[in-house]
Design a protein that fits this description.
The chain is an alpha+beta fold and 123 residues long. 28% of the residues lie in helices and 33% in strands. It is built from three helices and four strands. It has a four-stranded antiparallel beta sheet with strand order 2-3-1-4. It is elongated.
């Protein structure tokens, strides 16, 4: 039987069927200034512990029936799963895209100290 105290350990790997306690959440936007504004707002609101902005990437996608190519800035948020709904609501409200990319991936493993810090900063 699995150790029940492992659920309280921020570094414990997620078990099959048990939701991850931590997520990385990504969005994109069309300027560095907008990316910084989204990142800062999420950190100030304790919706994420950290946000990293990647230099421009080239995105190729279909929108309104046409293939588009644009430069975008990626913002990667580190957060607790319990804060996801609030982070998503913030991004939908603060973002100027009609349909912003908001995708989340579970963190299945991580350094205990780092994940404890994420938990503290998002509580």
């Amino acid at each position: 039987m699995a150790d029940p105290t492992a659920l309280n350990d921020p570094a414990a790997p997620a078990s099959v069927g048990v939701p991850a306690r931590f997520l990385t959440v990504m969005t994109t936007t069309d300027s560095e200034q907008k990316a910084e504004r989204l990142a800062r707002g999420a950190i100030e609101g304790r919706l994420a512990a950290c946000a990293q902005i990647s230099a421009p990437v080239t995105s190729v996608f279909r929108w309104n029936g046409a293939v588009e190519t644009n430069q975008e800035w990626q913002v990667l948020f580190k957060t607790a799963s319990a804060r996801y709904a609030a982070l998503e609501a913030y991004l939908l409200d603060a973002h100027d895209y009609d349909t912003p990319e908001i995708i989340a991936a579970p963190v299945t493993h991580g350094g205990a100290g780092y994940l404890a810090w994420v938990a503290e900063e998002t509580s």
